[in-house]
Queue: 4 jobs
Job 1
Amino acid sequence: MAARSTVDRRPVARVAVDGGVAMSDLTTAGAGADPAAAPQVPSTARMIDHWLGGTDHFPVDVAAARAFEGAYGPCAEIFRSLRGFLGRTVRHLGAAGVDSFLVFGAGVPTRGNVHEVAPAASVLYTDIDPVTIALGQRILAGSDRAAYTYGDATDLSTIDPALLGRYVPAWGRAPVGVVFLGLAAFLDDATLARTLDDLYAAVPAGSRLAFDFDGMELAGHPQALALMGEGFHMRDPAAFPDLLGRWRPTADGIAPVALWRPDGPPEDVPDAFHGGVAVK
Ligand SMILES: C[S@@+](CC[C@H](N)C(=O)[O-])C[C@H]1O[C@@H](n2cnc3c(N)ncnc32)[C@H](O)[C@@H]1O
């Protein structure tokens, strides 16, 4: 298993951008920004779009991605593997009968994101970064099955109930799919546990949660870790079951994402991210 030990794909919170741009909190940098203007601060979600070969990002995101790779090493294969995990979890939920998805910390809705993997399903993407939300709304304009809106994962009341009813039609009536990928690293243990418990309470029995979290990979890469800032949370995989609370992982358990129900030989990438599916 070659390089199972690297980074974390959602590098983030603070990244020193080439060219002297100040360090910025990537998780909240979009707050208050004009979503129509090219952003001055990077977003981890749009850095991932860059690594996935997408076109929905800005020069500042590319600069931050390059700065991170300078401290850590190449990231594209790691994030391709992670996006493959997203696809397998969404297909797994679909096979269990889920056809309504609520996505938190959704990032850019392209490059194998939820509605592309499950084209017959209804999908509501949410995020807190206004620039990424505006990008997502432009990408999804004209879709009658997928939409993008503001939603703070830690407070369900921030999601427009009309959009929730329209794009997650099973909400409150039948099992739904909750996609919580790329987000745990930005929440401390208490907030993460409370957020997952609130979600558990809000969804009907039989609902499923696709989740992942950052392992300890960056502990071996202190320069890259330093770029992530204080708001970045790595976790020992042994600690995660407690954080899931009442959610019950499926028999596949919690695994390095490349090893979770792989379609074939797993990608040879570092075990930067771990995840799985859990059921109410
Ligand atoms: C690393 S990106 C993940 C994007 C996508 N889910 C993926 O896996 O490729 C993390 C995203 O979480 C968003 N985010 C951070 N804190 C959040 C919160 N409290 N609620 C919702 N989204 C949040 C950020 O704005 C960012 O777009």
Job 2
Amino acid sequence: MFFLFLAGEPEFKYVGNMHGNEAVGRELLIFLAQYLCNEYQKGNDTIINLIHSTRIHIMPSLNPDGFEKAASQPGELKDWFVGRSNAQGIDLNRNFPDLDRIVYVNEKEGGPNNHLLKNMKKAVDQNPKLAPETKGVIHWIMDIPFVLSANLHGGDLVANYPYDETRSGSAHEYSSCPDDAIFQSLARSYSSFNPAMSDPNRPPCRKNDDDSSFVDGTTNGGAWYSVPGGMQDFNYLSSNCFEITVELSCEKFPPEETLKGYWEDNKNSLINYIEQIHRGVKGFVKDLQGNPIANATISVEGISHDVTSAKDGDYWRLLVPGNYKVTASAPGYLAITKKVAVPFSPAVVVDFELESLSERKEEEKEELMEWWKMMSETLNF
Ligand SMILES: [Zn+2]
């Protein structure tokens, strides 16, 4: 129904059921798709605006084989692990290229802090250790200029943000990424609308669970427990996409009659989280003739993580409220820096028109010629 693509419209995604036995996210995403269509037709302004301003991708199950395995167990009570992996026995959320290790080395020795997979696409296709689901989703992440995403899991109740893997390799350690401030805010934008998740008096899912890293229903990934090879950090380090991981329920495969309650608890969170895509700074990078500049670098002073413009020159840079210096640069062009005051929302439009260096050289040559002409006339050469 909504296949229209517009330049300047940001792309969002929800991924569910990566662990096949964690079924709540899968069901909620099907509810969500129905809800968006129904409310659109009913004339709900919030939903109409959201759909008209955002390209929303919904993948209810990244691991249908695991789900079938989990679902085929007889009786209400399901094993805690059966169906977690894919049909090959691979845990998909440990199967992504471990880009955290690369960026942690680059932090010390210098090197890129973003788009780390740029020249490694072929290596991904030829890597026999990557599951077909992993390869498929990597291509999806690389091919579409996603801005914001959430990966829905189950087994606990918290919104988890990068980094998931600790710097030192220890099991628990707060592992902030350069965008810690906006990620905390994004995680809260989900948890604060879920009454169970944000309840400060909620007991842990299981008596001996260590929830000490949880704050208002959110946690830094590494502070909770270190996850190497996860999808969340892969999104952040390989693309422009900011992803959080949401644990939706203490039970991984709850009885069917509880699903309605989970939907009620998560409906507003799911919508509010998509709306976060319209925060920070956005705009177009073009040359002086108005041609789009794809792959221009957008950097923010004080945050060592750059994003890039998409094929129409459009870019999105999620930021918490504050005053920033934003620079657009591209090879062969003069960089431009602009100061911008960012409110909570909506995103501030900041367009950049970059002058190409060859144009600049032509201008300088012409100026020089004119100067010579003037000089020669004055001095009667
Ligand atoms: Zn999971």
Job 3
Amino acid sequence: MASVRSSRKGWKTAATGLAALIVIALQAIGLGVGWPQEAAPLRIDEEFVKQEKIYRSQGADVPSGYVTNRGLSDYVGLLPSGFCDALSRLGSLDRWLDIGAGDGQAILDYYGGVDDAAPAENCARLGAKARAVAMSIEDRRTDKWRQLAVSLGDERIRYVSGKRLRQYSREELGKFQLITDVYGGFSYTEDLSQFLETVLSSLEIDGVFYTIVQNVHLEGGKDNPDTSYQTALMDAAGRDVKVCSWLKKTTCVKVVCESKRDWDSPSELINIRKVCSDVSVPRMKLLQFQAGNPPGRRFQLEP
Ligand SMILES: C[S@@+](CC[C@H](N)C(=O)[O-])C[C@H]1O[C@@H](n2cnc3c(N)ncnc32)[C@H](O)[C@@H]1O
């Protein structure tokens, strides 16, 4: 009897071990909790092609979720609480980079809205505005942008497009006191560590990066476990890693996350201040990518 019990116990232990292995294996190929269950693993190269089509879409072909015209007041509502103050403190020699600017509406509002909105709404000081650079993969400049660019000149507002942030050299971009990203590169890139490295190398010491990322594991585990995670990180053993925990492992930065669990999509509003120059971002590799607005991504920290 004792031997039957112990063999049952052994079988149970083996079955539990096997189940744990299956969970780790499923997580490793991207079929973990919250990731869409595909019959076959997605082909990353095919997903990249689909994503490129979203970027290049024009007119009626632009998917409804791919919003490119958020104004400055939307940025104030979506970015961490100190953003508007930080923008209003910039002087005329300071520089602001908006990564993933789409139409560049936030910069247009900053420069053009002073007459129609209170300074608290457009985050601008009368007479002193920072030099602003809008960056987008695809060129979405509007007539309004072109008119303002002609009247202000390239020195004040500039629109750069045709490539991704990581493809610019330091000399091309220069350095910035403030960098923003509202559902831009941080939410769309297939190389998150390289993206962050480029952001931080483009920031002056004491400069701040403000961004937001939706449908992620929130700091302190405050999110609903039924969430369909769009950006998921894991360590080398396949355990979930929160985006803010990963960011906090970067050297020479001070990271503050404001978790919004009551929003439709659990989101982290992220503020990263660069405090010294010896920045090192823990590397991650891309495991899965599913085209979308924004895309679904799974990354794994390199050991
Ligand atoms: C959904 S739109 C957001 C536009 C704008 N921020 C808004 O809220 O209306 C995404 C933008 O991010 C840009 N983008 C995505 N990945 C990028 C990257 N790695 N580098 C630069 N821009 C990127 C796209 O080209 C596009 O301009």
Job 4
Amino acid sequence: MGDDILDALLAAIPLPSLAIDSTERIIAANTEALTLIGQQAKGRNYVTILRQPALLDAIEATLTDRTPRTTRYLSNDGAQDTTLRVSCRPVRDVGQDGAGAVLLSFEDVSHVEQAGQMRRDFVANVSHELRTPLTALMGFIETLRGPARDDAAASTRFLNIMQDEAERMNRLVGDLMSLNRVEGDERVRPTQSVVLNDVLESTLRTLRPLASEAGVTFDIQMPDTPVHMIGDSDQLKQVFTNLTENAIKYGGTGGRITVKMTTSPREAALRAPGARVQVIDYGPGIDPVHLPRLTERFYRADDHRSRALGGTGLGLAIVKHIINRHRGRLRVESELGEGATFTVILPVQENV
Ligand SMILES: Nc1ncnc2c1ncn2[C@@H]1O[C@H](COP(=O)(O)OP(=O)(O)OP(=O)(O)O)[C@@H](O)[C@H]1O
Ligand SMILES: [Mg+2]
């Protein structure tokens, strides 16, 4: 088989692929491979081109013993580092004097690695979050059985703390389940017909006691006409609940929260008719350095304060997923000392 036939065969493979013969030269490569390892690679010695010891060893070994093997190659696609799985296969009767060659194909497995890393991070985070209240509970149980056994006042105090900690664990598990659910159906389009004004009003009605307890009043601005959309009303309610709860919890010192809905027949962010719901507080705000990561699971801008307030750091992750499912957008603007504005942009039905 000639090298040009080899080239033609490689051209048909969608993965970066190349062949190296017994003279250690790259005798054929498809365009995907040249993009990966450099346009000048053909005809050159593979050692000067591929350079990574693990891969060089694998090629050398396969050239010698003619046994297939796989290895890894690290690259960079311009934006980020990538990991490629390289399969080395011996091919007989090609190359110089028909002495055989090694065929390499590169498969980008970065997403698999990333998913694995994310799963590990997630498990580590969950374990850590559960362990903190659990450690406290175990400590108090021990104290109640030992030193504080006959101290009624201390027992009452400890039981109160234990209840708080147990409630925190319960909230965390509840949030995790809710996150799991919304992640699960993120690709399923919602089908209910929803009036956004009603969802917002019912959310704020539910949260009014929490607000007045914190000394916060709602300033509500909404269109008089009903705003219709296709959505999941429970999930949308959860979005507005999480945002308003945050505004009360973290921005309540401002004394007032503005909840404002506006609509536009041509919402620029969606290139379609849309509604903007803004939850605005006048509290301490968020340092802008935190904004890009705010919707990550377990991310807290002010870790200490958020924990003290019983936050699990999952609220905005849930919000983000629900908004994605509704093909909407979330925008956050804040400056330290200037309060915070969370804007939810949702596609709505036109002319209704
Ligand atoms: N309105 C706000 N003002 C200031 N900081 C905020 C505001 N909203 C959110 N944050 C910050 O963003 C972090 C993430 O919020 P998120 O709702 O995801 O988690 P949480 O409130 O800590 O926990 P959860 O909502 O799960 O109980 C919070 O911990 C807080 O530091
Ligand atoms: Mg929250």
